[in-house]
Design goal:
Fumarase C, Chain B, domain 1; Fumarase C, Chain A, domain 2; three-stranded antiparallel sheet; two-stranded parallel sheet; 55% helix; HutH; Fumarase/histidase_N; EC 4.3.1.3; histidine metabolism
Length: 505
């Protein structure tokens, strides 16, 4: 069980909750801070003090005073009116991440909610009730208002949820688990939606997928190196050391471990003096993508433990309106992540071309078992090229855009949720490109001689061959790509780590 306290949630812990279905609970110490914060809200209402979002309207309506008898209705109206999400829902796992992150943020004790609100969020995670949250409609400032309103509705028994593999009414799922719907009180609606948990949840899931894909890309590139009889000298420690980037050095070291004892790789001058960039520059290019991942990881782990509400309530009853809900840090991080992952796909597609193009290798043209009569992997390269081209359009930064809202009260926004959604799409496209590369690389390596492969790549080949068979005749390769891409999902990442760690140099 993962204990939340608002300060120590990591991507590793998030992985356990999201992908391994670990349950969560709240730290008693954190709940004590939540109670103190709630007492401050109740004093504000009782004293009829003018505080944004508690005794006033929202956005441009911040100057409209609300009678103390209406403060609860104000919160319900806020959620219902702001639930303007559009389009297909976020993946269910992202909805689960939103619940996790929202609970953790409220446990910091600066939002003024009752403990029951946090307990309900935790219950939804632990019972697998995941709100249906449309993906479109957030500007990424004033928080992810529209998406998080759909999340909050589930607590109230409104809207729809994913539950036990089905999409059902929220009230139906709550009743099945014996959870009564929640009636929001002062400040609670605003506290639930005024934050960056939609973009950050999407970012967390995207990062975890991207990180596993980055490791997999190295293993797959190692098989390509063998299929093309690549020159191992390019991974020499001295080359990496004099450049100085740790991530580059790490990639080169992992590549050497994957290819240790291979009889298919060559030394410079044996077959050629040097390889093309897509092979020779694997440490430099993949290493740069790892630099991006490291930056994104740092920003996500800060944001996962951030108070992004407005106003915030501090010790002594001090209440301050600010802008922690603004998603600019995550918008930049997600746009950066798009570049890093898109490049992993770009260089992978160039390796695919080297595997299938008879003008660039001495393999059968397009890895075909009967060149001419059978096309082999010809159109797989087309598909990879299409995906990387699509990634180039998705990689356009969302964060450079802004559009004013709420009658110009909210006149600069981040578009961070758009950035995170596009990053997720790029990861999906990149996974399909890498699926194509491993299918082609295995075919080439087998042509060279499976018995000559490195110990580790041979084990990986054995496992991958359970997913996709050798190309002995033309078939519907779309099915192969789909199966291989599914195998490359983060939940199947462990075999790669086990193989990578299996030989000590």
């Amino acid at each position: 069980m993962v204990v939340l306290n608002g300060n120590s949630l990591t991507l590793q812990l998030a992985y356990q909750v999201l992908f391994q279905k670990e349950t969560i609970t709240a730290s008693p110490e954190a709940l004590a801070k939540v109670i103190c914060s709630r007492e401050a809200v109740e004093s504000i209402v009782a004293e009829k003090r003018i505080v944004y979002g508690i005794t006033t309207g929202f956005g441009k309506f911040s100057d409209v005073l609300i009678d103390s008898s209406d403060v609860n209705d104000l919160q319900t109206n806020l959620i219902l009116s702001h639930a303007c999400g559009i389009g297909e829902p976020f993946p269910e796992i992202v909805s689960r991440a939103m619940l996790l992150l929202r609970a953790n943020a409220l446990l910091k004790g600066y939002s003024g909610v009752r403990p029951i609100v946090i307990e309900r969020l935790i219950q939804l995670v632990n019972t697998g009730i995941h709100p249906v949250v449309p993906q479109q409609g957030s500007l990424g400032a004033s928080g992810d208002l529209a998406p998080l309103s759909h999340l909050a509705m589930a607590l109230m028994g409104e809207g729809e949820v994913f539950y036990q593999g089905e999409r059902v009414l929220a009230m139906q799922a709550l009743a099945a688990e014996g959870i009564p719907p929640l009636t929001l009180e002062a400040k609670e609606g605003l506290a639930l939606i005024n934050g960056t948990q939609a973009m950050t949840a999407m970012g967390v899931v995207t990062y975890l997928e991207a990180e596993s894909l980055a490791y997999q890309s190295e293993a797959i590139a190692a098989i390509t190196m063998e299929g093309l009889q690549g020159i191992i000298d390019a991974f020499d420690e001295d080359i990496q050391r004099v450049r100085g980037y740790k991530q580059q050095m790490d990639v080169a070291e992992r590549m050497k471990r994957w290819l240790h004892d291979s009889k298919l790789t060559t030394k410079q001058g044996e077959l050629r003096v040097q390889d093309a960039y897509s092979l020779r520059c694997i440490p430099q290019v993949h290493g740069a993508s790892w630099q991006v991942l490291d930056y994104v990881k740092e920003k996500l782990e800060i944001e996962m433990n951030a108070a992004t509400d407005n106003p915030l309530i501090f010790e002594g009853g001090k209440v301050i309106s600010g802008g922690n809900f603004h998603g600019q840090p995550i918008a930049f991080a997600m746009d950066f992540l798009k570049l890093g992952v898109a490049e992993l796909a770009n260089i992978s597609e160039r390796r695919i071309e080297r595997l299938v193009n008879p003008q660039l290798n001495d393999l059968p043209p397009f890895l075909s078992p009967q060149p001419g009569l059978q096309s082999g992997a010809m159109i797989m390269q087309y598909a990879a090229a299409s995906l990387v081209s699509e990634n180039k359009t998705l990689a356009h930064p969302a964060s450079v855009d802004s559009i004013p809202s709420s009658a110009n009260q909210e006149d600069h926004v981040s578009m961070g949720t758009i950035a995170s959604r596009h990053a997720y799409q790029i990861v999906g496209n990149a996974r399909n490109v890498l699926a194509i590369e491993i299918i082609c690389a295995m075919q080439a390596a087998e042509y060279r001689g499976r018995g000559k492969m490195a110990s580790k790549t041979a084990v990986l080949m054995e496992k991958a061959r359970e997913i996709v068979e050798p190309i002995e005749k033309d078939r519907i390769f779309a099915k192969d790509i789909e199966r291989m891409a599914a195998w490359l999902q983060v939940t199947n990442f462990l075999p790669f780590l086990e193989i990578e760690a299996s030989v000590n140099l």
